[in-house]
Amino acid sequence: MNFGLEIESFADKKEQEKQTRNIWLDNVEACIQNQGAIETARAILRNALVQFPEKKKLWMKTQKLENEFGTTESLCRLLQRGVETAKHEFLFILLAKALWKKLGRSEDALEVLRQGLKEHEGAEDLVLALQKLYRDLGLFKEAIELLDEAVAKYATDRIWMQAV
Q1: DSSP code of 53?
Q2: Which domain holds residue 52?
Q3: How far apart are CA 103 and CA 125, in angstroms?
Q4: Which of 8, 52, 58, 85 is the most buried (most CB within 10 A)?
């Protein structure tokens, strides 16, 4: 049995993947800072996301790049892709925020947050984001119902604070 070699090989592979991601991120920074090569930075990040679609750090860096240098539409397309592939909670929140704040599409923002809650039942950040959006849109009944349900099911400190 070679369990030791398999574990070592797995650890080596993970370290190599981390080093690869760090090199790509360094290259992205160099493209932005030194050369202003935004399209090259985008291409590097697109490739990195194909290789490592689950890595939050890559999504955050790509979102930051689009937020700074892209259009609202390109940002929303990126976040939509992230919601569909990586399904991280923060991607649902960022997409909803962009739809509502930048495009004025409050119904779409509500749907994105509801979808996020279906994917991540009980996710505190999603519950609170949806509750805030309900409140900001004047949908107080929906906000109260959501918080009542969240308190009954999850009862975290942050949810309790909003419910009081």
Answers
A1: T
A2: 1-70
A3: 22
A4: 58
